[in-house]
């Protein structure tokens, strides 16, 4: 069977280092895996038995085009994760769905263009667009700079974005951010990484994933991650749930990455094989 790992023509990093790892795992599973870009009009997607979304990391800049491609591709081959998940997960208003379902999440206020810019009364806040990745266009503002936060919301509105405002979670600076990877609905592995937004500049540093190291999540963290996955419109074949600890030390969801997450395969022995075996089983079913 022939599958394709889907990337993009322009990446915010030099390369997706996980693609060759997944290609090798595909070969071990008895699959032929090509690599192609979602935004390459020359690709004949119908020629593949399955398209596995991987590093489509430029989609936030081309959301409507990407969503149209998702629907068109899913009409001619099996797309994983599927269109319902992609449409839901590509806009961070899904955090509201998680909250409504009782999943602990970072409190989030949404401010759409045209709405009054009234910030919640947090002393230390994060402002970012509802469509984005890698903390791009995200900024942290402390008490004395909240007027700058208002200006950043207005700038996001001028760029056509709905803004989201969240209280900064202080424990990320000491306890880090956890990323729990799941394959086939089951926990695979996890990492913990440092804070992405600088405590000095308020913006992202050089790396989207600083100071990564393996991590063994607690039972409570696993429970929250599984609860978040269960809210998706359909069961995802793969996913990464990013958690932080709130002021009480309880895990809460910061992001649910179900489209093109970096999976930290180097920290999950056998994870690539588990994913490609799940792909093979999906095709066989």
* Helix/strand class: alpha+beta
The largest pleated sheet is described as:
5 strands, antiparallel
Tell me the CATH superfamily of the largest domain: ATP-grasp fold, B domain
Would you tell me which CATH topology of the largest domain applies?
D-amino Acid Aminotransferase, Chain A, domain 1
Low-confidence stretches: 200-204
Proportion of beta-strand residues: 15-25%
Using brief descriptors, characterize the structure shown.
285 residues; alpha+beta; Rossmann fold; D-amino Acid Aminotransferase, Chain A, domain 1; Dna Ligase, domain 1; 3 domains; 13 strands; globular
Structure, explained:
With 285 residues, the protein is an alpha+beta fold. The chain has eight helices and 13 strands. The strands form three sheets. Strands 11-10-9-12-13 form a five-stranded antiparallel sheet. Strands 2-1-3-4 form a four-stranded parallel sheet, sandwiched between helices. Strand 3, helix 2 (63-74) and strand 4 form a beta-alpha-beta unit. This is ATP-grasp domain-containing protein.
TL;DR of this structure?
By secondary structure, this protein is of the alpha+beta class. 28% of the residues lie in helices and 24% in strands.
